[in-house]
Amino acid sequence: MIGKTDLAELKIKDGEFELLLRTNEYFKNKKSPVTQMQPQSQTFIPMPGASATPGASDSSHTPSADQSTDKKPEASSATSQEENQESNENLLEVKSPIVGTFYRSPSPDKAPYIKVGDSIEKGDVVCIVEAMKLFNEIESEVSGTIVQVMVEDASPVEYDQVLFMVEPS
Predict the structure, then answer these.
(1) What CATH code is carried by the domain that includes residue 125?
(2) Closest CA to 37 of 134, 142, 161
């Protein structure tokens, strides 16, 4: 119905509920296909058998000949894993508030919102998660420096899945 009008954007606010609709006309003028949705309360039900960590149950990986015959790399690998766990304890997580498809940039021809080494503040847009053809800007709830991007671009994400690791400022 809105597409049949000359409206580019419609915003409805009722108490805590806010709805923002944007038409293709809006995106033609903005050159950035992003629709923001800020739900106040949601209920998410994970699908049975879905894993929050892609590849976590992948047991098809077989060690290379170097790994299976030489025990020294395993020892140094175990030490580096312990160091990573200790350093990860100090890191903050930016998690997905919804289920959908993760995108690092507003459109394929644009630069990512953030990359490793960038400083972010609370409220900065860090990525987009597409859900049901709506592009939802995900804002950081923490301030700091991006240390690691945990999800590949254009891959599915689960509710509460870690998207970025941030060193607090």
Answers:
(1) 2.40.50.100
(2) 134
Whether residues 94 and 20 share a domain: the answer is no
Please compute the mean of the pLDDT values over residues 57-70 and round it to a whole number. 43
Please give the model's pTM, rounded to 2 decimal places.
0.51
22 token code pair: 């944007």
The answer as to whether 105 is a domain residue is yes
Q: Do residues 138 and 97 make contact, with C-beta atoms less than 8 angstroms apart?
A: yes
- Checking 49-56 for CB contacts under 8 A at 24+ apart, the result is 50/158, 51/158, 52/158, 52/160, 52/161, 53/161, 54/155, 54/156
Number of domains in the chain: 2
Q: Where does the chain show beta strands of DSSP type E? A: 9-14, 17-22, 92-95, 100-103, 119-120, 125-131, 134-139, 144-149, 155-157, 162-168
Per-residue model confidence as pLDDT tens digits over 92-140: 999 999 999 999 999 999 999 999 999 999 999 999 999 999 999 999 9
